[in-house]
Design goal:
With 186 residues, the protein is of the alpha/beta class. The chain has helices at residues 11-26, 42-58, 69-73, 75-79, 96-108, 116-119, 145-149, 158-185, and strands at 3-7, 32-37, 63-68, 86-88, 120-121.
Amino acid sequence: MAVDVVTFGCRLNASESEIIRRNASGAGLNDVVIVNSCAVTNEAVAQARQSIRRLRRERPSARIVVTGCAAQIQPAMFAEMAEVDRVIGNDDKMRGEAWREARTAFAAAAGFGIANTEKIAVADIMAVRAFKAGCRAPSCRCRTAAIIAAPSASFLSGAAIRVRFRWARWSIRCARSLRRAMWKSC
């Protein structure tokens, strides 16, 4: 069977889903459903969880991998779901090596299951310093707009709130510059 991607959320998630599918197929994954999640609202997270449960009922033999903003923010919650086989971070979802590592983990765990802690392959998104195509902001992280806006479990100082607000403004600028670049290329 092929690699299928179920996408929730923004247009960026939708455009990245095709790249994710190609990378996962290129890594040799078969009979895998990838849920590219969104964390803008609690309803989006609930819909992703509901979809994961439905996918397991419809395709009991398929491996289910969760990625995207919700997976980045709440990896343990998705790893605790019996239906989920792997949780991949938002930045790693675009890298072929993350999908090769998933294939290796699935092959090693064949028949024995995967422990919750071994399901999680999520790195610190704030350590990412890569540029997005068409972005003019020096440390743009367009894919992390929901992560930056998401409330933290710990107390936020005034400085932390200002940093989150600054990242949110940069992500809006990035989205605008990407839209302009797309219109110019047409």
